[in-house]
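Before relying on records like the one below, remember that each one covers exactly one chain. Contacts with other chains, cofactors or solvent are not represented anywhere in the record.
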Amino acid sequence: MVELATGLVWAGMFAYHGPALEALRGAVLLTLLFGVALTDARHYLIPDELSLGGLALGLCTAPLPGGITLMESAVGVLVGFSVLWSVGKLGDVLFKKQAMGGGDIKMMAMVGSFLGLAGVLLTIFLGALLGTLLFGPISLKSKRLVPFGVFLSTGAALAYGWGDQMVGWYFSAILGMPYP
């Protein structure tokens, strides 16, 4: 099933983008996110091979046509890492135990390398929302840890596919402003 789903992701990216470099970039990102989600769901672990290797791939593919600039990628890396690191440190203080794993933090740096600043912020929002709605009640009742990488991966996939439309809707419908 995993191989079939991965093949469908690649076929879908090339069907959507055509034989363009963005199809390759999107397929790589979604494959990494799929691997992160599966591994975190099973083992509560996000391997560095996926997060740090993906970070390098994101930075290397940023200058390719159809994607974000290298500067947008670098800003995404810094913000993705910094925001989750800060939230993790604050959680450590508030809960007096480790609140967030290092894998989630490195994973968000990887997401930033592919999606830039807006994509990182949208990913964090969507991941937190999905995690709270879907796993929050289970975690409260059973005291199980939340495999946050699963929800961040889902949020990043949504941000990659529909992020511009979501942010555009937010700016126009909520803020009453044109999307820059």
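The chain has a mean pLDDT of 93.
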